[in-house]
Recover the amino acids of this structure.
């Protein structure tokens, strides 16, 4: 049994995962309501909340599993907010010492990369390795508030970064757009909600983000375009056209994600295509990318909602499936946090 702890930002999470059987349980404390007042995550408040809630969440976990079942502690070591990561690491090391089990560090981004395959494991744990092998090499798209990346996973489960964003992440662009429009936190879901009732062709926001021949992303110009558009409108007009503005702005963000994903698939020989990260919950984006996969005759795998945000389930899963590919840090009690850890590092 792998017991995983996640505290990279504003979610305090614990999960228990048996590679032979699946999840014994997942527990999360969300801080969204606390940070909503400030329009974003306040690091000091987030770390304080982790300190207050790790104990109670672990107590809930231990009502389901027994300490003697745990053979490994897995903890997020980065990337993330330094003070928040430190809380999780301290808790993980304490448990490892008391229970006399090893502790390993997991890359949060690499956990996202493997998260679409959690449902594959759940369907048949005994056949997981065989079924996963049939889906590799895999092209993945990670879309979250802080990251936008195209990457591949080869037959040895090694991750190679193919492209990332040159400025804002897609989720960040949606959040900043929401802030310009006076919407609440978190912004992305608010944009999606209003966009459902809007016309995506109502406003001509630029869709040629970054050079068309490259895989790199760029969203800062799009955000600037929205600001200029709002400056040309009266407040009453903005309010009246808010749904159309959201739909058009969101469409411009997604156009870049779809176009670059299609280009990457055309340039490589892949057996599957996947979507992960917080923005993966957007139903319009899901449909668009599923169509891309279908056009290439590839299966489309996406992370399930509870495994798209900051969660311990994907941390435990990555600790299990990456053990042969060198993607998990084995530093033990000498483990240190890595707030700026890149996707390709262990």
């Amino acid at each position: 049994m792998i017991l995983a702890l996640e505290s990279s930002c504003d979610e305090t999470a614990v999960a228990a995962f048996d590679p032979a059987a699946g999840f014994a349980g997942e527990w999360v404390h969300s801080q969204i309501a606390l940070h909503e007042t400030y329009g974003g995550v306040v690091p000091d408040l987030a770390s304080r909340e982790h300190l207050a809630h790790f104990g109670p969440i672990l107590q809930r976990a231990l009502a389901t599993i027994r300490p003697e079942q745990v053979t490994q502690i897995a903890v997020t070591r980065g990337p993330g907010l330094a003070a928040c990561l430190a809380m999780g690491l301290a808790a993980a090391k304490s448990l490892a010492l008391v229970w006399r089990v090893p502790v390993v560090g997991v890359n949060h981004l690499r956990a996202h990369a493997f998260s679409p395959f959690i449902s594959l494991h759940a369907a048949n744990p005994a056949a997981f390795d065989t079924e996963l092998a049939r889906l590799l090499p895999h092209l993945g798209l990670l879309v979250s508030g802080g990251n936008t990346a195209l990457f591949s996973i080869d037959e040895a489960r090694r991750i190679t970064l193919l492209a990332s964003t040159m400025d804002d992440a897609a989720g960040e662009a949606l959040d900043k757009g929401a802030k310009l429009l006076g919407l609440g936190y978190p912004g992305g879901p608010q944009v999606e909600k209003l966009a459902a009732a809007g016309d995506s062709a109502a406003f001509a926001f630029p869709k040629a983000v970054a050079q068309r021949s490259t895989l790199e992303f760029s969203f800062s110009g799009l955000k600037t375009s929205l600001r200029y558009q709002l400056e040309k409108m009266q407040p009453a007009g903005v309010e009246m056209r808010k749904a159309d503005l959201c739909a058009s702005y969101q469409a411009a963000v997604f156009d870049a994600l779809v176009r670059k994903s299609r280009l990457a698939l055309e340039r490589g020989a892949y057996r599957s295509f996947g979507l992960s990260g917080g923005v993966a919950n957007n139903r319009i984006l899901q449909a668009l990318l599923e169509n891309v996969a279908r056009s290439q005759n590839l299966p489309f795998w996406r992370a399930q909602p509870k495994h798209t945000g900051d969660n311990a389930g994907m941390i435990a899963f990555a600790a299990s499936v990456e053990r042969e590919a060198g993607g998990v840090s084995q530093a033990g009690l000498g483990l240190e946090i890595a707030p700026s850890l890149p996707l390709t590092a262990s």
